[in-house]
């Protein structure tokens, strides 16, 4: 469990603006000492809010050799925390232990990957539904344009935040992408957008 999740909250380890990357680095420290783990091929895959946290870890820890941010919540957080179901806002207030509305709004205003985009050096895959109700497609396109690393943007036509019926395909596609990225097949300058047609 990362900060703000599961047992972390029982221990009052709330999520902050910068502690998820520290938790990610601690996990990598553990993996590096684990027999059978190739420490030169450690990747990070995050979906939904994890699409914000996983790239943060990659930006701060060069031991991440490939990163996937799927079902994106990449840039501004107004869509998810102000214009979507109130449960999302209340849940994140609990995860962060920040219940003051103004302080919470000030915190989420800083939750963008834009300031970190140039620090992400490893191959990066962004994947989202065309009509994601929690993160506008424009946010994903904007972050994709900022990245200087090998990168891909996958957009699933007519899908929303959770990819609907395309999810089983996505898991297979992303496993292949991660293998290629960790095997060094995505070289500097690689930039590719794939629009997956609706079924």
Short description, anyone?
The chain is α/β, with parallel strands linked by helices. Helix content is 40%, strand content 16%. Helix 3 links the parallel strand 1 and strand 2 (64-70).
Write a structural description.
Helix 2 crosses helix 3. The model has no long low-confidence stretch (mean pLDDT 96). Helix 3 links the parallel strand 1 and strand 2. The longest helix is centred in the last third of the chain and has 16 residues. A five-stranded parallel sheet has the order 1-2-3-4-5, sandwiched between helices. The protein is α/β, with parallel strands linked by helices. It is globular. The protein has a single domain, classed as 3-Layer(aba) Sandwich (Rossmann fold).
**Helix-strand category:** alpha/beta
- The low-pLDDT segments are none
Number of helices: 8
Assembly form of the protein: single chain
Coarse shape:
globular
Average pLDDT over all residues: 96
Strand content: 15-25%
The biggest beta sheet reads: 5 strands, parallel
Radius of gyration: 17 Å
Topology readout:
Layout (H helix, E strand, L loop, with lengths): L6 H4 L8 H14 L9 E6 L2 H11 L3 E7 L7 H5 L3 H11 L4 H9 L14 E6 L7 H10 L4 E6 L10 H16 L8 E6 L3
Parallel strand pairs: 1-2, 2-3, 3-4, 4-5
Helix pairs in contact: 2-3
């Amino acid at each position: 469990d990362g900060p703000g999740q599961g047992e972390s909250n029982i221990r009052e380890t709330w999520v902050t603006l910068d502690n998820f990357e520290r938790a990610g680095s601690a996990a990598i420290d553990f993996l590096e000492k684990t027999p059978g783990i190739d420490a030169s091929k450690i990747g990070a895959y995050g979906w939904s809010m994890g699409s914000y946290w996983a790239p943060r870890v990659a930006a701060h820890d060069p031991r991440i050799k490939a990163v996937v941010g799927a079902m994106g919540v990449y840039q501004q957080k107004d869509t998810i925390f102000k214009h979507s179901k109130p449960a999302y806002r209340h849940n994140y207030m609990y995860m962060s232990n920040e219940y003051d509305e103004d302080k919470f709004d000030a915190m989420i205003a800083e939750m963008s990957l834009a300031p970190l985009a140039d620090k992400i050096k490893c191959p990066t895959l962004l994947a989202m539904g065309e009509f994601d109700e929690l993160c506008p497609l424009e946010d994903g396109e904007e972050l994709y344009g900022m990245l200087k690393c090998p990168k891909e943007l996958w957009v699933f036509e007519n899908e929303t935040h959770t990819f609907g019926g395309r999810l089983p395909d996505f898991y297979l596609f992303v496993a292949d992408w991660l293998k290629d990225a960790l095997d060094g097949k995505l070289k500097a300058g690689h930039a590719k957008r794939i629009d997956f047609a609706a079924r």
